[in-house]
Amino acid sequence: MASSSAASSSRALRIGIIGFGPFAQFLAKTMAKQGHRLSATSRTDYSQRSAEMGVTFFRDVGEFIEASGNEVIMICTSIMSLSEVLKSIPFHRLGRPTLFVDVLSVKEYPRSSLLQVVPEDSDILCTHPMFGPQSGKYGWEDLKFMYERVRVRDHETCSSFLQIFQKEGCRMLEMSCKSHDKFAAQSQFIAHMIGRILAEMGIESTSIDTKGFESLLQLKKNTENDSVDMFSGLFVHNRFARQEMENLGSALEKVREGLVQRMLEEQEKKPIQENDKNTN
Ligand code: NAP
């Protein structure tokens, strides 16, 4: 893993977005503010929303590919829909070599999928902005941005894209998709898992909440804001998450057993205490 300066050159880019959901719209706001020319396509019709944001919207993915002349195409679909979405892209209609970027929260899966489908003369950059509409609401300063240059020949376009995040003050972390998935299984997946468990339990605020409990309520709220598709994807398409799920299960059992053991020890002591009380 290396924290790097990521990029030197910077210029306005023509960026096309596939999958214009909540996270894509969040990124697009900053990209538009920086002067990049944006277009988008999505399963849902976001024509109105796009017009408000100054983004050209295409209902048809083929027209999007042909008409927009994008230098960068950013894949922002859910993890669970990636393969379906990639199948729907008519790559043969690309008018020029293009930099394909993905922002999915798992990394080995889009890396291998993009290597299979992206034309040989186009480049691939896999990224994960480690923040979202909530944590990045007031700016991206000091928020982490992970990336791997999977196949990059047009360094100038790639640098200009990375500059979008560097300019906003992100901490740029260049690392392999494999390392990302190992770390994310131990951190992000566990956070989402605990948040979902707390939601399943239906925890609610009380009049005597401790700071610790307030953090748990916040965790529950944060994970519920993310889609079930995203949560499922963090597990289904990160091979390291299975082991972390096992670890979580055995840790819960170990902690439970420890407490039950203490309870049994305490119950065994009781008759002695009661005898003591009677003799006093
Ligand atoms: P999401 O639920 O993970 O993805 C929503 C996007 O996926 C929408 O554009 C949606 O299109 C598209 N989609 C879902 N199912 C589809 C299908 N069957 N066919 C075609 N498109 C489909 O929510 P998100 O928060 O916007 O995340 C988008 C991506 O960014 C995900 O890969 C996520 O892992 C990643 N990411 C999210 C965050 C975050 O904080 N939210 C942070 C970093 C990375 P329509 O809207 O047109 O239906």
TrEMBL record:
<dbReference type="InterPro" id="IPR045011">
    <property type="entry name" value="TYRAAT1/2"/>
</dbReference>
<dbReference type="GO" id="GO:0070403">
    <property type="term" value="F:NAD+ binding"/>
</dbReference>
<keyword id="KW-0560">Oxidoreductase</keyword>
<dbReference type="Pfam" id="PF02153">
    <property type="entry name" value="PDH_N"/>
</dbReference>
<feature type="domain" description="Prephenate/arogenate dehydrogenase">
    <location>
        <begin position="13"/>
        <end position="280"/>
    </location>
</feature>
<dbReference type="GO" id="GO:0008977">
    <property type="term" value="F:prephenate dehydrogenase (NAD+) activity"/>
</dbReference>
<protein>
    <recommendedName>
        <fullName>Prephenate/arogenate dehydrogenase domain-containing protein</fullName>
    </recommendedName>
</protein>
<dbReference type="InterPro" id="IPR036291">
    <property type="entry name" value="NAD(P)-bd_dom_sf"/>
</dbReference>
<dbReference type="InterPro" id="IPR046826">
    <property type="entry name" value="PDH_N"/>
</dbReference>
<dbReference type="GO" id="GO:0006571">
    <property type="term" value="P:tyrosine biosynthetic process"/>
</dbReference>
<dbReference type="GO" id="GO:0004665">
    <property type="term" value="F:prephenate dehydrogenase (NADP+) activity"/>
</dbReference>
<dbReference type="InterPro" id="IPR003099">
    <property type="entry name" value="Prephen_DH"/>
</dbReference>
<dbReference type="Pfam" id="PF26213">
    <property type="entry name" value="TYRAAT1_C"/>
</dbReference>
<dbReference type="InterPro" id="IPR059064">
    <property type="entry name" value="TYRAAT2_C"/>
</dbReference>
<dbReference type="GO" id="GO:0033730">
    <property type="term" value="F:arogenate dehydrogenase (NADP+) activity"/>
</dbReference>
